[in-house]
């Protein structure tokens, strides 16, 4: 067999229906699924996503019982469920290759699920910006820019789903050309969106370092980079976790849009349409991301106090806010790396000296009964024997 021959199922021409919906006439990433090898591969990946869904839901439920609400665990649970559905649809499609309804559902779930991961990374990037530059990060204009990015994800999702479904119901060349243009725009935009957290975090970190250097020149002191700490663990670990996951998601998004920019006939697909490329650049990358977040306990690392609305709220506790020590215990160094970055303060903003004063008073109260009282806790009159009444 020639080394350039298409993978099984990748170049097969499925029988076309006489009427809509119509199966695609160009090669797609992954090609037409077949029982072998798609069924065993899809089954293994499906089981792994079941594990990720269970992991993130378990983390959410445990935290919820501690009054620690971390909604991102629910988002990753929802993403895992979307991937489970997509793989189940692919398994069904492999057994029913001419069923266009199953093909449509499989393509929609593949395109839609990954957007949740893009949103999660963008929100984490926003938290990093607010930590390094509170005044800038909490600025109303910056806040609306991020909100616009979040809303644009929903808009792009609607565009992708609409044109992807409609292409199955028309053979008009001009309409398909316009819908392909929409797909290319949406794919490119999502690839940029997946990449966006990387420059956002790097620029925020560089600007904070520049501010530190200017302060050192003016004051002649060796000050550290000023930032509002949030969550637990080292801040550099948060940065690396966000950068690596964003890079992986960018790789997957870039590969998918690159495949769309280089169409091939259904009977003559290229290597990038193969099944290994489909599974690796979609599901394997996403599995690495969801398990990395779960096993690294991102629910602790990226947690911020409930009700944070402005500068200082990340690192200063407030009445009614779940503090890290309330949720995770008194030790802020959960990683054992010696870097206590819990970034929390006592309720009401009281400092440590005030709490030390209160503890000393409570100790005195337990030993002496009242401030300035005698150690026995009894007055001289109380020490005298009392006469018993007959």
Characterise this structure.
- This is DUF7702 domain-containing protein.
- Residues 41-202 form the DUF7702 domain.
- Residues 352-361, 380-390 have a biased composition (Basic and acidic residues).
- Pfam families: DUF3112 (PF11309), DUF7702 (PF24800).
- The protein is mainly alpha-helical.
- It has helices at 35-65, 71-95, 100-113, 115-132, 134-137, 140-166, 173-195, 197-219, 235-261, 275-295, 298-301, 324-328, 352-368, 380-383.
- The longest helix has 31 residues, at 35-65.
- The radius of gyration is 29 Å and the shape is globular.
- Mean pLDDT is 78; it is low at 1-11, 215-220, 318-377 and 379-383.
Task: Please describe the structure with a list of short key phrases separated by commas or semicolons.
single chain, 390 residues, mainly alpha, Rhopdopsin 7-helix transmembrane proteins, 14 helices, disordered N terminus
């Amino acid at each position: 067999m020639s080394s350039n021959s298409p993978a099984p199922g990748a170049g097969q021409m499925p029988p076309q229906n006489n009427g809509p919906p119509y199966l695609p006439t160009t090669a797609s990433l992954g090609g037409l699924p077949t029982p072998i090898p798609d069924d065993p591969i899809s089954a293994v990946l499906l089981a792994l996503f079941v594990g990720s869904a269970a992991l993130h839901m378990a983390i959410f439920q445990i935290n919820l019982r501690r009054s620690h609400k971390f909604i991102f665990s629910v988002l990753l649970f929802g993403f895992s469920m979307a991937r489970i559905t997509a793989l189940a649809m692919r398994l069904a499609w492999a057994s029913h290759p001419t069923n266009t309804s199953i093909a449509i559902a499989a393509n929609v779930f593949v395109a839609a699920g990954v957007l949740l991961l893009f949103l999660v990374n963008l929100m984490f990037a926003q938290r990093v910006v607010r930590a390094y530059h509170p005044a800038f990060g909490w600025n109303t204009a910056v806040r609306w820019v991020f909100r616009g990015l979040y809303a644009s994800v929903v808009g792009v999702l609607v565009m992708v789903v609409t044109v992807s479904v409609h292409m199955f119901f028309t053979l008009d060349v001009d309409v398909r050309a316009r819908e392909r243009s929409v797909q290319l725009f949406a794919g490119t935009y999502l690839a940029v969106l997946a990449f966006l957290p990387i420059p956002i975090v790097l620029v925020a970190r560089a600007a904070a370092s520049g501010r530190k250097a200017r302060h050192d020149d003016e004051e002649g002191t060796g000050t550290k980079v000023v930032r509002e700490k949030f969550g637990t663990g080292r801040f550099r670990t948060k940065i690396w976790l966000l950068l690596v996951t964003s890079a992986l998601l960018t790789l997957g998004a870039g590969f998918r849009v690159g495949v769309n920019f280089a169409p091939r006939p259904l009977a003559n697909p290229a290597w990038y349409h193969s099944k290994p490329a489909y599974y690796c650049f979609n599901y394997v990358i996403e599995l690495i991301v969801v398990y990395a977040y779960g096993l690294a306990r991102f629910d602790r690392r990226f947690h911020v106090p409930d009700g944070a609305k402005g500068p200082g709220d990340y690192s200063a506790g407030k009445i009614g806010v779940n503090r890290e020590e309330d949720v995770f215990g008194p030790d802020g160094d959960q990683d054992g790396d010696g870097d206590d970055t819990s970034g929390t303060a006592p309720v009401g903003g009281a400092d440590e000296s005030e709490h030390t004063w209160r503890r000393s008073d409570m100790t005195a109260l337990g030993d002496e009964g009242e401030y300035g009282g005698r150690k026995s806790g009894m007055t001289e009159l109380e020490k005298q024997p009392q006469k018993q009444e007959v």
